Amino acid sequence: MVRLRAGFLVLAALAYLSFVVGRWTATLFSLGFLWAAAIGIVVALLLALAASRLDRVAYLIIAGVVMLFGAFSAYDFARGPIDFSQGTATVLALVAALFLGAAFWDFANLLREFRAWAESRH
């Protein structure tokens, strides 16, 4: 049950990042909703593949950058279109950063457990 929770957290973080990147890219190039969805799916696949192949230091650096990007996106959205106060937007940005950090931590643990399981099968 614990692994199931970790999988959902990673999936939710991947969906959040894919949505943000797909929406921003489609908006930047004046593309429609289906293009945004396609870009989001490609980003999700590439991010999962790249994150599973990195060493520890590179993984931590990329996790930090993605956490900052997610926090900035949440803050920017809360301040811009929603027009929340600066304090509320900051709290939402911190929640997004903590959420993404927890997802990266869970993903690293899932990879470690999967690799140990795969090595024990040989």
Automatic annotation (TrEMBL):
Domain of life the protein comes from: Bacteria
Residue intervals passing through the bilayer: 32-50, 57-75, 87-105
Alphabetically ordered keywords of this record: Membrane, Transmembrane, Transmembrane helix
Name of the molecule in the record: Uncharacterized protein
